[in-house]
Amino acid sequence: MAIPKDILAAQRPSSTVVKQRGTRFVVVKRTSKRVGNRVVPVDIGTVGEIIDGRFVERKPEAPRKKTIDIKDYGEVALCNKHGKDLLDELARVWDLNDAKRLYTIALLRAAYGDIKNRELLLQYATSFASEIIPGVHLSEDAVSAFLQEIGQAYSMICEFMRNRIEAFVGKNIVVDGMLKNYNSQDGYMSEFSRKARTKGSKDLSLLYAFNPETKEPIAAKPYPGNMLDQTSINNFIVEYKIVNGMMIFDKGFYNEDLFERIDKMEGLSYLIPLKQNSAFIKNYGMDNPTEHLKRYTDATILYKKVRMSNGKYLYAFRDPKMAYEQEVAYVQQAQKKETFDSEKYIGKKSLFGLIVFKSKKNHDPLTVYWHTPKDGRLRRYSISTRI
Hints:
By secondary structure, the chain is of the alpha+beta class. It has four domains: 5-57, no CATH class; 74-152, no CATH class; 170-237, no CATH class; 243-387, no CATH class. The protein is built from 15 helices and 14 strands. Helix 2 packs across helix 4 and helix 3 runs antiparallel to helix 4 (96-112). The longest helix has 18 residues, at 320-337. It is elongated and about 125 Å long. The N and C termini lie far apart (91 Å). Residues 374-387 have low confidence and may be disordered.
């Protein structure tokens, strides 16, 4: 098919011809060579196209390198800024190459959530983690085998966590606990906890320590779901050599055996919130705090501190704002159910907005208050320790 005249009329480089390829009109560079007694034209290559009546040059194609030239920066940079000291701590226990791989995996999972092993290599290659710590091998098979090997060296894990505990000398550490669903057929920690039987799912118990100011994790250890709390707490303290501190328990976790054990540990103390029907509250007048906790930013907090006859201490705190809210809610609920009882109301009135702790040590009331929940409730238990 003949090339249209308007296409041929378009200005183009010398020594070129126009050829039609489908609906396109390409411009081909041409030269010639002698074959015998004849001069034969030779096409060198396409140099452009005629588009919309004009010549558009095609740039010479250079070999393309397989590189990633756009990488995610923000999340990885932020996590690395606050966690880069961990690499030094890891390198104190593990070989540097192993420490780099552990830190990189932790960095990626902190930045992008609990990503799977098969996703680590892609996230590494497409983020600034590969610029911060280059040359880390993160294929799925390599990571799985590596983490299994790391997990089998339990003594090294303990050494790392003990080092982290020691690094927090003079700082507060909070140790909290939780139950997590865990129905493994092989894991020996998958057991029915006291609460799990009602929901038909097995659990494991997880204790973990963290910095209450930065929320930075420091140490952690899993336990079977059916293990007694006091057993796991005692093991956690011994395992990681927490020898000085203050423990805070939920009021439903009142256990004299555990408290007696803690009493024998010179450096350890505890705080236990008393139940509202505890005789200690009325006997020591703890339902009537009158001292002002002036150093607290909320100027409405009142407290009372009393030394008991057995040498232990009681600390009471009342938040008048919370007391008002609880009193209103109590009256409204009683009216709604038509069960309002004036004598019962009088007995509970002094307990609204109140929380009372028992401890074996003489603490500054402000220190104790900072360990109380601001909504009037406590977690199952937590441990705050100053080493």
